[in-house]
Amino acid sequence: MTMVTLGLDLGKNWIHMVGLDADGRIVLRRRVRRDRLLAQTVNLSSCLIGMEACCGAHHLGRALEAQGHTVRLMPPQYVKPFVKSNKNDYRDAEATAEAVQRPTMRFVPLKSEAQLDLQTIHRVRQRLVSRRTALINQLRAILLERGITVPQRRRVLEVRLASILADEPSGLSARIRQLIEDLLAEWHDLDGRIEAFDAELTETAKREDTCRRLCEIPGIGVLNATALVAAVGNGATFDKGRDMAAWLGLVPRQFSTGGKQRLLGISKRGNKYLRTLLIHGARAALPHLAARDNTLGVWLRELLARAHRNVAVVALANKLARIAWAVLTGERRYAAVAA
């Protein structure tokens, strides 16, 4: 029997394979070490290979496609309904093989090496930003325990710390002063490392035409543009802009039954990091966009008149995502439409 579909359950050291023929019968059940997988698949006839989109799947998918196979990655939550009872690794591989054949299945596009590099830069940068935020919160807590409160904003705290440490009667012991100075030095080190990543992303955005076109959209800067390119590439995996906005979790969550539609808050599904960047960009761009005499400005003013400002910010983030999709897929430049 000829195998037409192969499901892979990826593990750190071992990979379980289940192959199906044209009628859906199992014709292959095998377990191989990860470093021996390509040696096994090179001898197989070209077939459709399904995998869950997880760590290492993009690299492996590119290697399998180089051997002549057709590779499809799927979100794990879409594969789970196909897993039978008494779950094990072979059942997971079988579920992957069955799910990849479904005509309505949603697939994750294979990322190129350049996209993965760009995504890794963003992830490392975000980890450093989270460390800096935790450090700043700890500094505020240390000062608050000693009766010293500082207004919000990072730079305000940095300026106030210099005067607090210079003020001898502030009530801080010598040991606490030393600890604060150590934390401040760590803070400055994190600032330098984050700025280095920002400079690298800026240079990347200047080189890439797609990023330059995205940066012309109000509310989308270097971080948003490079993160979009790293996550969705040319956006061809989405049929329309609303699909990308839904993938980012920027559309209403539904709880509808009996023919009655009930829309709730945004779904918050998909890429949380990218959604956060778009919402922050929309929040920063909202004031000057609402003041413009174009269709976007008119729409924003009407929305602000009947909805809360935060609702308008998320709605603008949704619209920016749709505009970004149009720029990514059409190789066009953003141009505001006159009212």
Description:
Helix 5 (113-144) runs antiparallel to helix 7 (174-207) and helix 10 crosses helix 13 (309-330). The model has no long low-confidence stretch (mean pLDDT 91). It is built from 13 helices and 7 strands. A 5-stranded mixed sheet has the order 3-2-1-4-5. It folds into 3 domains: 3-99, ATPase, nucleotide binding domain (Nucleotidyltransferase, domain 5, 2-Layer Sandwich), CATH 3.30.420; 113-207; 209-330, no CATH class. The radius of gyration is 25 Å and the shape is globular. Strand 6 (252-254) and strand 7 (263-266) form a beta hairpin. The chain is α/β, with parallel strands linked by helices and 339 residues long.
- What order do the strands of the largest sheet run in, or round the barrel if closed? 3-2-1-4-5
Number of strands: 7
- How large is the radius of gyration? 25 Å
Strand content: 5-15%
The largest sheet, given as strand count, sense and whether it forms a barrel, is:
5 strands, mixed
- H and E order: EEEHEHEHHHHHHHHEEHHH
Give the overall form: globular
Question: What is the element layout, followed by pairings?
Answer:
Elements: E1 3-10, E2 14-21, E3 26-33, H1 37-41, E4 48-52, H2 57-66, E5 70-74, H3 76-79, H4 89-99, H5 113-144, H6 154-166, H7 174-207, H8 209-215, H9 222-232, H10 241-247, E6 252-254, E7 263-266, H11 272-290, H12 295-306, H13 309-330
Helix pairs in contact: 5-7, 5-9, 7-8, 7-9, 8-9, 9-11, 10-13, 11-13
